[in-house]
Amino acid sequence: MGAGGRASNPPSQRKIENDEHLKRVPTTKPPFTLGEVKKAIPPHCFHRSLIRSFSYVIVDLTIASILAYIATNYFPTLPHNLSFLAWPVYWAIQGCILTGVWVIAHECGHHAFSNYQWVDDLVGLVLHSCLLVPYFSWKYSHRRHHSNTGSLERDEVFVPKKKSQIGWYFKYLDNPLGRFLTLTITLTLGWPLYLAFNVSGRPYDRFASHYDPYGPIYSDRERLQIYVSDVGVLAVSYGLYRLVLAQGLNWVICVYGIPLLIVNGFLVLITYLQHTHPALPHYDSTEWDWMRGALATVDRDYGILNKVFHNITDTHVVHHMFSTMPHYHAMEATKGVKPILGEYYHFDGTPIYKAMWREAKECLYVEADEGSEVKGVYWYKNKF
């Protein structure tokens, strides 16, 4: 009597439902093969259309050009207060559109743009160079990331440290201010620091840089193309220098520089959240295999930006399994594989700003579970 209006779940049950996305991904060998997963995907999803792929390039570059034209021709005529508001709006939208361009160049690096490798490399080189990314250099290191995802010894980027390896200063950053500073530095400087100095990348026995053709990241057959990447970045840098002379430094920063910072921030954030999650395992050499590593990734929801970013955000699991699949088929492919993957498929719809803060708080280092019989599986932890 008197309890008839209590139709909601008790607090404990609500907590379990709300934390469902934190349920750990299985680490046992999957009961399915890659071939069985592939059969669940409609065959047309693996077809690459040169015309369709180029249509995305044209649309993105057209939007970016229109935005730049409006900003450079109409913003100067606005009253100061409106101009003060208009530029941040331009930066945000242009940064998102150019992130989509970045994603298309990333597709080229995976040979997912067309059936012609030379077309993919030419388009990727041009697009990535315009965003100051050394195309071939990143293509080869990123390919090794896909070959070694989830491996503590061989993965290429966002490789977590074991508790015994983290610096003494980590515990002083384990607070709101420390997390804010860490995220700010990561999102603004993380990408150039990774390219130039391999920050957050796998350790090598000597200095590693994406600009060094003779660095340890690359094999002898790849070194000539690293030179080509460097030439591409230098050519665009020279073009920016000429623009500065013609239009002024402030013009170049406002039209190009700040949107590029937003692109860099988004690609670091996207990559970070795809591979950093309390429910995702990492493996040492005693337990790692390619399939379990590919499944140790998570799809995220960026709302309308999923489409702007060509669904690199919410189809990352299937991308790791079939990286030559064009992005415009990845949503259909993801729907096809989810019944096969079952609990091995992980999606987290937590709002991105909350997920970013949570992962920065919860995922400080990796450690095997105490008392676990399986010693080669590591999970993110944060207790010092």
TrEMBL record:
One of its GO terms (biological process) is fatty acid biosynthetic process. Residues 19-68 form the Fatty acid desaturase N-terminal domain. Coiled coil: none annotated. Keywords: Fatty acid biosynthesis, Fatty acid metabolism, Lipid biosynthesis, Lipid metabolism, Membrane, Oxidoreductase, Transmembrane, Transmembrane helix. It is found in: Membrane. CDD domains: Delta12-FADS-like (cd03507). Pathway: Lipid metabolism. Residues 14-23 have a biased composition (Basic and acidic residues). Its EC number is 1.14.19.-. GO terms for cellular component: membrane. Residues 86-346 form the Fatty acid desaturase domain. GO terms for molecular function: omega-6 fatty acid desaturase activity; oxidoreductase activity, acting on paired donors, with oxidation of a pair of donors resulting in the reduction of molecular oxygen to two molecules of water. This is Microsomal omega-3 fatty acid desaturase. It comes from Medicago truncatula. The gene is 25483518.
